[in-house]
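For concreteness, we quote verbatim a single protein encoded this way:
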Amino acid sequence: MQSIPFSATERTSRLESMAKAQLDLLVIGGGITGAGIALDAASRGLRVGLVEKQDFAAGTSSRSTKLIHGGLRYLKQGEIKLVREVGRERAILYRNAPHLVIPEKMLLPLVEQGTYGKWATSVGLWMYDRLAGVSRKERRVMLDKEETGQAEPLLRRDILKGGGLYVEYRTDDARLTIEVMKTASRLGALCVNYAEAAELIYEGGKLAGADVADLIGGGSYRITAAKVVNAAGPWADRLRSMDKSLSGKRLHLTKGVHLVVPYERLPLKQSVYFDVPDGRMIFAIPRGRSTYIGTTDTNYDGNLEKPAVTADDAAYLLNAVNHMFPDSQLKEKDIASSWAGLRPLIHEEGKSPSELSRKDEIFVSPSGLVTIAGGKLTGYRKMAERVVDLVAAQLSREYGKIAKRCHTDKIVLTGGEFGSAEAIPSFIEGLCGSDIGQWAGRERVKELVYRYGVNAGEVLARVRERPSEHAGIQPDLGMALLLAEADYGMTDEMCTGPDDFFIRRTGMLLFDRNTAAARLELVGEQMAAKLQWGQERTRRVYASFLEQCMAAVAFE
């Protein structure tokens, strides 16, 4: 059967297809974990559906530090198995999505009374390199005080003792989630955003599916499934409550905040992982025309849909930066954007937020609800493998259905079909040689390739397909390219509105907020026409986006 396009206009078709016949597996939750489970299960030949009540990656999976890393601090906590696993996963991701997993130098300054001493850092980074399977050319280099100061001139010198230079991998967490979801869809998974599992349904005391509400098109769909997985992240305990199985271990939510400042206000030569006076460590990471800073780690019990950055959060991070980089003297007015995310960790009595393990765990309720909780962005594929192994064993035992073994380590994600990361520069040059590429310029083409991978060519082609349409709106290349991206988002990435586009498909609200706000009406008009919005929906989506624009720089 031909797969249904991963388009915003085909959401209803996907829900109808899910409701038409029983699924082998229904996944509730459309973050990176749910997306990984859908991909793994679909690749093994299972009939899979996934529903997400917000946009894909709208929760934790678009609000991380945006690093695919082994977690150096977890080595200090003795979690050697975790470091080894996510290090290997990082290498797999780099192979399967090279446009989204970018090696970056990371400087670890050693300071007086800091977290790490020189000997411990040298040994720790040596172990980290080997546990994480780091290639020889990317292994750590230890620096003395003078070399560290040369590597990062903005560091304060009075407490500096030396440093370690190692390699981490930067990513776009939301785009990674989207590409995993698109790959799952290509393999037959029926994934739909803005579709809420409003009620769970049971047969003979066993979970048999969910009544799903379409939050955009209206209507309700009864979706039955042999097995149901709860991959709802911070909302996982709410689903367990619906299942009347919230007992024993529970989630412990912590909030992580990041600030974005213009690069010229914190012009670091590379990413820096540095000590904070209270004993924690945070990152400062250059990205294009910005530098972002984070993260905090505090207990949270507020609104799950809209965790906010408070004035105290902002002050904590600004003070931390000014302590380590005293010449920067950042102030609240320098903040160009921000975001706050929630970590769905597993509660451990007596431990502070930063001490809680990032390991994942699986719970199975008496009704059969399978819940996955905890974990890290980097480890999503192995988390998915463990969940689908469990589900496949249940399906084999109860229904005689035999699933294939996991092989997602060999599945290249959509957009990543370069052959290797080394082939990306020549691909960029090839696009730059086209007429549209020459018009766009190398920097814009490069930006598109590191956003969409090989599909950047499709985005550029859409400018060529409708030159008169774009010119009729405004004869400006930048706007024409943006409209081509929006068109691609709607037809190929289930982008349903400005929030989806400017936050999770392009990241513009986070790293180019003023431009995103200025282009709202332009993009909104195209979306309204293609998706046939009425006046009320148009008003609501504009209001939602403008609210988020304001929230990014308004701290209570």
